[in-house]
Amino acid sequence: MARTSSTPDPARRNERSRQAILTAAAELATELGYAKLTIEAIAARAGVGKQTIYRWWPSKGAVVFDAFLAANENEAGGLDLPDTGDLAADLRALLRPAAEQLADPAFERVGRAISAEIQLDPTLLREYRARLLGPLLEVTRDRLRSAQRAGQLAEDLDLDLAVDLVYGPLHYRWLLGTGPIDQAYADAMVEALLRALRP
Amino acid sequence: MARTSSTPDPARRNERSRQAILTAAAELATELGYAKLTIEAIAARAGVGKQTIYRWWPSKGAVVFDAFLAANENEAGGLDLPDTGDLAADLRALLRPAAEQLADPAFERVGRAISAEIQLDPTLLREYRARLLGPLLEVTRDRLRSAQRAGQLAEDLDLDLAVDLVYGPLHYRWLLGTGPIDQAYADAMVEALLRALRP
Amino acid sequence: MARTSSTPDPARRNERSRQAILTAAAELATELGYAKLTIEAIAARAGVGKQTIYRWWPSKGAVVFDAFLAANENEAGGLDLPDTGDLAADLRALLRPAAEQLADPAFERVGRAISAEIQLDPTLLREYRARLLGPLLEVTRDRLRSAQRAGQLAEDLDLDLAVDLVYGPLHYRWLLGTGPIDQAYADAMVEALLRALRP
Amino acid sequence: MARTSSTPDPARRNERSRQAILTAAAELATELGYAKLTIEAIAARAGVGKQTIYRWWPSKGAVVFDAFLAANENEAGGLDLPDTGDLAADLRALLRPAAEQLADPAFERVGRAISAEIQLDPTLLREYRARLLGPLLEVTRDRLRSAQRAGQLAEDLDLDLAVDLVYGPLHYRWLLGTGPIDQAYADAMVEALLRALRP
DNA sequence: TATTAATCGAGACGGTACGTCCGGTCTTAAA
DNA sequence: TTTAAGACCGGACGTACCGTCTCGATTAATA
After folding, report:
1. Its domain of life (chains A, B, C, D) (predicted)?
2. Please, which pLDDT band fits residue C61 given cuts at 50, 70 and 90?
């Protein structure tokens, strides 16, 4: 007797369809926004049966998120913070581009959609932490640890708290719109951070 | 001459229905969670026609959000930070309860839902800032300004940035789950903040 | 204690509104067809509150029907069949215009709508018989009775059955579209009728 | 290439659902009457999604009408008028049961509803003529033609007009209630018909 | 190389909720 | 008191998608 409705065999998966689905999802997400996006539309755009989507992804969020990851993982994969020895400069080199991206209106929609999705679905949050956020925080902690060893930071500094301090305020301002986000803000933030973290 | 299909007259609004809708929305939001909540269910629970909801609110998000505001505004209205002169103690008195609320699993579901709703709908964000966030930031800035005048903080401190520093890291950790949220974290954060903000 | 929701006092009725309602109903019936007609639309067009319609008419059908009657009663009131002594000629003078009206596409829509309404609502049927159909059948029977007295028709002829024979076939052909309706048909029908009714 | 939002494929139609819908429609039509019948109720009773009804029928009228046709087509399929050579007897055998059915209160409600629906919707009228009325008129004409050949009817008789004479008066009396419908009426009508149609 | 089993595109299906429309009732202010 | 205006509860409308379920028709691994 054949197994019914079991997990499918990844070996037989149609790579062509997988790509078409991710592409369609990405396109539609930017065109319509996440909320107005539907599985049916993705299937239609990708020229794919709905079942092919449901076979490989558990939810709309998972598809879109996968598309987002596929687009960002490459770039994120190669992320490495500079370590010039000048902590202030290095932090500026980190926060300035971050501020720039957050201030970009094109990033606005998809960024907020993904962010909302992540904070509502624990599964997606876990995956986001594993594949994107985690590595970023890792290298950030590494850089701070390096500064710590160099005596630029307090010896007993809690690096997890430090990382929250680095990214939290910027993230807060972006999500809640408490003020403008620009280079000056990034620079001022770096100064405040250094005061907070120094020995 | 009669206007056709125009905005309704608030003077003729049925207060009884308005209350019933907000109450039903609040109840259902906690029972089912925001995502599973439907306008139809709210209308049924409130003993109200669907049209009466659509007449006064543009979306499900707006209703739930209004219910949330109605529930929190009172308490928020009376918010005043202590000003004992001891800034460290006052900040702890601010951040400890905040951490406690964020760590409360009961707050988790509705909090994240509202947060996601806010960051996706600019209208709701604006209203949130006007009615809840704004006043909170205001009193926070006031307290910091008071400390500034007392010479406890840098004279040239940017209070908006300072506020981001106060609330941002905690918010970040809560949304992205980068670490545990407890009293120790709140206290450590206060110490770091004082270092960052001191003259 | 005042009587609540009792029958209204016709003496205080606003004639201006009554006219406006009937006119609006007639206009909208021809513009939209009976099925798409709504009480709300009539009230809006007439510049009248919905309640004013519900106060004086029990249903949409009643309003439209009343409008139809108001428009046709005058003309129907003055109906009198010719009695030239030549029964064949007089029947032709009766059926030819009838055929012409039924064949008129402009009459098609409203005619069928009224007809359908009548056959579905016993109340309307009763009123239709009382105010329009009754008088018509009456004068028809009168003319046949006159011919009967003149020896042109069978003495024992059942006049009610005779009237069915006069109007029934034409009506049948019109409603079910079993064939073309024109002057030739009317004339042929008259010939057949005479054979059927003669002594 | 896929056609978008086009007509569905009848080959994939679920016969089980089709039957359930027609049955539910027939039941509800007799229970509630046509006017109080809703698509939602049909779908619920049939255990079917609303969309499945809308996919295959354009309107409530079409469904009910289809149910009516499905119920009556069998019986109508086997209809054959007797041809005993005695035209009077054969016509009585035709009109007496017809009168009986029309006089049956149980037939009243659904009969009038279908009749009204037919006369308002040209599409339904066409289908009614094709599937029920047409065959009936056909066999009627055949019987009359047979009598014509036997010299019992006028040679130049217009059979279409003759058929209107046979069915029209009865139909007229039924729809407009111009008099009682019973066996005596049917018999008297047959006598009048024979006079009208004889050579 | 033929067989066989899974995936695929397609789309009908039972459902749920949507947002709109309108029925019929009730309330209010003006006439 | 009636009226115009229109908010109200209720409920059906017709639509959009959901996630499941057949259907052949590929298509890729096995025999």
Report:
1. Bacteria
2. confident
Q: Three-class SS of residue B6?
A: coil
Could you count the other beta carbons within 10 Å of the beta carbon of residue C152? 17
Burial of C198 (0-12, 13-18, 19+ CB in 10 A): middle
Q: What are the start-end ranges of the E strands in D59-111?
A: none
Q: What letters, b where the CB count within 10 A reaches 16 and e where it falls short, cover D11-41? A: eeeeeebbebbbbbbbebbeeeebeebebeb
- Show the tokens assigned to A156: 């007993």
Assign a CATH topology to domain A13-58.
Answer: Arc Repressor Mutant, subunit A (1.10.10)
Closest residue in D to A47 (Cα) is: D2
Residue pair B39/B53 in contact by the 8 Å Cβ criterion: yes
- Local structure of residue A102 (DSSP, 8 states): H
> Percent of chain D scored above 90 by pLDDT?
75
Q: Give, as one character, the DSSP assignment of residue D130.
A: I
Residues D55 and D84 sit within 8 Å (Cβ to Cβ): no
Give me A166's structure tokens. 């680095």
Subunit contact A178:B137, Cβ cutoff 8 A: yes
Instruction: Decide if pLDDT at B29 tops 50.
Output: yes
Q: Does B74 touch chain C (CB under 8 A)?
A: no
Which CATH code, of 2.60.120.600, 1.10.10.10, 3.30.540.10, 1.10.10.60, is assigned to B14-59? 1.10.10.60
A contacts of D2 (beta carbons < 8 Å): 44, 47
Is there an interface between C and D (3+ Cβ pairs < 8 A)?
yes
CATH superfamily of B79-197: Tetracycline Repressor, domain 2 (1.10.357.10)
By the 8 A CB rule, do A37 and A19 touch?
A: no
* Cβ atoms A56, A8 nearer than 8 A: yes
pLDDT at A7: 77
pLDDT at position D107 over 90:
no
- Inter-residue contact A172 to B167 (CB < 8 Å): yes
In angstroms, rounded to a whole number, what is the distance separating the alpha carbons of residues D88 and D186? 11
DSSP state of D3: P
Our measurement of CA C69 to C1' F5, in angstroms, reads 29
- Domain-wise residue ranges, chain B: 14-59, 79-197
User: What is the CATH number assigned to the segment(s) D14-64?
Assistant: 1.10.10.60
> What letter represents residue A187's amino acid?
D
Q: How far apart are CA A56 and CA A70, in angstroms?
A: 15
Query: Percent of chain B beyond pLDDT 90?
Result: 75
DSSP class of residue D2 equals: P
